[in-house]
Design brief:
The protein has a six-stranded antiparallel sheet, with helices on one face. The protein has a three-stranded antiparallel sheet with strand order 7-6-9, with no helix packed on it. Helix 1 packs across helix 3 and helix 2 crosses helix 3. It has five helices and eleven strands. Strand 6 and strand 7 form a beta hairpin. It has two domains: about 45 residues, no CATH class; about 120 residues, Jelly Rolls, CATH 2.60.120.10. The two termini are about 35 Å apart. The protein is about 25% helix and about 25% strand. InterPro entries: Anti-sigma_ChrR, Anti_sigma_zinc_sf, ChrR-like_cupin_dom, RmlC-like_jellyroll, RmlC_Cupin_sf.
């Protein structure tokens, strides 16, 4: 069960279709596993539909409906029933079936990364997968901008608590933390960053110029 959720404003922006594609993906992945947030979005969608119903009505010709139905009736009919296709999650569509088998790049001792920004053309944010080995520690860091993260596998802990699979978290330049992978499997997260992170440890801060 998820314990950390998107805030109300993020869910409202998602319902209205105002989020960037990578941010919307993070929320969608969370919604697939969180009945609580899914119910809230359903309510927001219903409210949006009610508001649309109160917009000025568009007048159409009386014959429009009959013309539409005539076009449907004249369309070629399928000769055989449509076979339902297996549902493919947006994560599978984006990354394939095994995220552990992706071409990870070792960045630090316990941390590997994979930049997938190019899968979201036209977006200003950086989109990155991060893998923290089981029991491993990420370097202490803060952020130069906003970072939206969802846990895809495993779990990590920091001063804010434990974040399990499908948990959601947003951090900014006021947050400093050092995630630790807990449990017996590697922790993999998907993050959307508006700016590079900033290492704050005594030795690792020397690597800041290379973290772009």
């Amino acid at each position: 069960m998820t314990r950390h959720h998107p805030d109300s404003l993020s869910l409202m922006e998602y319902s209205a279709g105002n989020l960037s594609e990578p941010h919307a993906l993070c929320i969608r992945l969370h919604l697939e596993q969180c009945p609580h947030c899914r119910s809230r979005v359903d309510t927001l969608n219903s409210l949006g539909a009610v508001m649309m119903d109160h917009q000025p009505k568009v007048t159409v010709a009386d014959s429009s409906f009959e013309q539409l139905m005539a076009r449907i009736d004249s369309s070629p009919q399928a000769s055989s029933p449509v076979v339902p296709q297996p549902k493919v999650s947006p994560l599978q569509k984006l990354l394939g079936d095994d995220i552990n088998a992706l071409p990870w790049k070792r960045q630090l001792a316990d941390v590997s990364v994979l930049d997938i920004t190019d899968k979201f053309p036209g977006q200003n944010e950086r989109v990155v997968l991060q893998k923290l080995v089981a029991g491993g520690k990420a370097p202490a860091h803060t952020h130069r901008g906003d970072e939206t993260t969802i846990v895809l596998q495993g779990a990590f802990a920091d001063q804010k608590g434990v974040f399990n699979q499908w948990d959601f978290v947003v951090l900014n330049e006021q947050d400093e933390h050092r995630p630790v992978a807990v449990g017996c499997e590697d922790c993999i997260t998907l993050s959307v960053l508006s700016a590079p992170l900033k290492l704050t440890g005594t030795f690792t801060r020397l690597l800041n110029p290379f973290l772009r």
